[in-house]
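User: Capa receptor-like GPCR isoform X1. Structure?
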Amino acid sequence: METSDDDSYDFWKNWDLKNLTEAEYLAKVLGPKYLSMRMVIPLTIIYMIIFVTGIFGNITTCTVIIKNPAMQTATNYYLFSLAISDLILLVLGLPNELSLFWQQYPWVLGVSLCKIRAYVSEMSSYVSVLTIVAFSMERYLAICHPLRVYTISGLKRPIRFILAAWLIALISAIPFAIYTKVNLVEYPPESGNYSADSAICAMLLPYMPDFPLYELSTIIFFLIPMLIILVVYTRMGLKIRNSTKDTLNSVVQGAIHGDSRQIQSRKSVIKMLSAVVILFFICWAPFHTQRLLYVYAQESDYYPDLNEWLYILSGCLYYFSTTINPILYNLMSIKYRNAFKQTICCKTRIIGRRSWVTRESQICNNSSSDKERNSSFKCSMRYTINQAKEMFRFTPSQENDGRDKNMNDNVSRKSYMLKKEDSTSRPLLNRMHSAQEKWENKNLECKTKDEKSISTSSSIL
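Assistant: Predicted structure:
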């Protein structure tokens, strides 16, 4: 924005510049150098909580995905990229933001670090947004078009999308590195001298490019992603809700066993999808609003007070998104939590698994040795059929024992006769196996008939 000489004169003439010290003059031009402790201390606590939880959550995400081959799927590649971008934003952006609350000026790290800070912060935020969009599309395909997921499955597709997201972000953030600079205030006014204590790292309005940089950033990296996320998550929610209605009808008819738990699970998934859309808007809308107000509402009377509070709010929510991302996209997943336990508590898990195997083997051994106690209920139906096979199979020595010792035993005699008539016993066993397998397959088909799209997305959600 350009100002005429008359406007500059009207702006300065009401000030008694001769009686102002350098600190007082800079306070009038740039605002207070130090903020109130009532504001700084709570903000410091909030930022430290965001920093610690964000670092822990994102590092944990990367560790779990790297150390668990089962977690190295297409969707988790997106989550790994999201965690890396969030870590960059937390490490390189948040400490500098926090230092500005304690001392707003001067900037003492030089021009190069000023430009790098602006570039890296902008780039990492772009990567986060684009990764969330790509991950949302992956979820959409898994839930609404599961067959397409199978036809285009593989790791090359997500890797290409992730590389494209980083490349777009790297290029799109270049203007912020070019036009962000260390700005100095002339003191005394119109003297040609600049105060070193007035250095601030920012892209000020008079030095912004001719093209609408903030506007394009808002449209490309907020409005369009917000629209895409809203559409795909709405369609996912409708798909899950319709599937829930069908399942509810089958439960009422008594056709499916245990589907009330699935209905509750789907309702929780719908709530999670809604939370993703709402939190994306809440975390990013104040940030872009504050930028647009700087461009279009700087001359208004209410702008200074509004900008002060909006700057604080947008900063907190901006960095809060890096903490909430691991919770929304990872910790709410049962598969991720199991992988996390396996990674962090692997020794405890191995010990527990060995003790469980020991208990299971003891149960099955007791079942095989004490058939008369009817303990076969502790084993599977298939194991019971195998026991029946063994009962119908006799060695020659067993046959002789059966003739000599147990000829009066009805059970042994019948078993002996079944062995002698092997041609009739085998079809009987085959029919038992076939009936059992058909029963299991029928139940499995009933449970998964209307759940193919949901079961396909279980690893994603």
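The first helix runs from residue 5 to 13. The chain is about 75% helix and 5% strand.
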